[in-house]
Amino acid sequence: MNAPHTSASVAPRTEKMLIDGQWVPAADGRELPVEAPGTRATIAMIPRGGAEDVDSAVKAAAAAFPAWSQVAPRDRGRLLQKIADKLEAQAEEMARILAEETGNAIRTQARGEARSAVDIFRYFGGLASELKGETIPLGENVLSYTRREPIGVVGAIIPWNAPVALAALKIAPALCAGNTMVLKAAEDAPLGVLLCARICQEFLPKGVLNVVTGLGEEAGAALSAHPTVRKLSFTGSTEVGKIIMRAAADRIVPVSLELGGKSPSIVYPDANEDWAVDGIINAMRFTRQSQSCTAGSRLFLHADIFDSFLEKLSAKLAKLKIGDPLDEASDIGAIINEKQFKKVCGYVAEGLKVAGSRLLLGGLPPSEGPLSKGYFALPTVFANAANDWRMAREEIFGPVLVAIRWTDEEEAIRMANDTHYGLAGYVWTHDIGRGLRAAHRIEAGWVQVNQGLGQFPGQSYGGIKQSGIGREHSLEGMLDSFTQRKNVTVNLTV
Ligand code: NAI
Ligand code: MG
Fold it and tell me: Which of 196, 209, 223, 356 could form a disulfide with 155 if both were Cys (CB 3.0 to 4.6 A apart)?
């Protein structure tokens, strides 16, 4: 384990937010600190935007909309491609900012995220010409066609766990389709998003993209309730997703929600092998402290391999290095903030007490030594868990994996689906027929067989049940989430 770096003596820089092409503080001058989870040092002060700032940003986006929506789609796409090139040129700077503010390790996570933002802008930039409509064959004397029109001002609210990738996933498709946007960055990780905004602003007309910083209950609530916002796109907790949906219901605006998960991983007896162990570690997103909505956090292991699989898993997990997110040697960084850290520790403490639990690895984090200087949680595995434990039902958003034994396949699938979430799922077996039958029966928006990788552009990604509604990462996602269809029907006989 390596020691966290110390930058506590460096004075925090002051950041501004982007409204109508200008970099501005909050109207009332209030600020919020941004803390580095690896050191607990305050690294920046950001505007604590409120209702007045949100209103200015929405007005700017509304004013920019008529002209932006009439830019030829190909030209909008070209601008997104230029943003991608600039993001690529600044990817290393972005990765360092991300590692410091999110606590995600630079080598295993932050660099990949900076690259993924480039890919997302490039992907959607290339799709501009696909904003096509249809013609409806009503006979020779009628021309009936549909147009894919932009919706208007989009209000986007994002979390902190992959802030720049998620910002890109809102900005690129929404702007490509001709909308303008007000994006509310997460209070815990706004700095990479502000760099992304700065790069976007070099190429975009003023007001097309506005980025507001501040708290959810203040700036976020004001944005979701603003009468001029015509579409809401949210990624974050199921709890806040419900609040957003209620705000949308009041004005009948469409909403996309990408919420939490408690995703199952079902391991068949023939997959008691190293590749499956590595895959489970990936699927659980241990190297991003499991702060991922798609984390495969319920591990259903067949009874025949239960102990031997867990032994291999623990041995591999024990080799991962936890420490300074900016250190190239670190595999695992820090939990985002004190609140989440305490929440994760609370689940671990409860797991240690629950009847029948067996701690295989990890446990409560050290209270002294170098790791105690930041929010470093240990990869933790509880064996002999039951699917009705709180740890097995609630999204922990931390590196706590529960292993549940199964013998009957029907029972494994029943337990996998016995959750109010439905975001992702994982199946592990050499028997591809069996694997695919299980994949089809898992109630989730995305099931991977024999791998535990991340999302990719082009995938219509999103959840079912309380994991959300709508899809955004693909061409269909852009069309469904960020355009509205209009039909025009013309009588050709006059
Ligand atoms: P959160 O859902 O409160 O925050 C996400 C975003 O929503 C932030 O930008 C926040 O400022 C904003 N927000 C919060 N309250 C709001 C409100 N009333 N109106 C409008 N916007 C609001 O998530 P938080 O508190 O950071 O994490 C809590 C839990 O949420 C985590 O433990 C995890 O279970 C889940 N989560 C899921 C994520 C996902 O990717 N699906 C990402 C982050 C958190
Ligand atoms: Mg919250």
Answer: 223
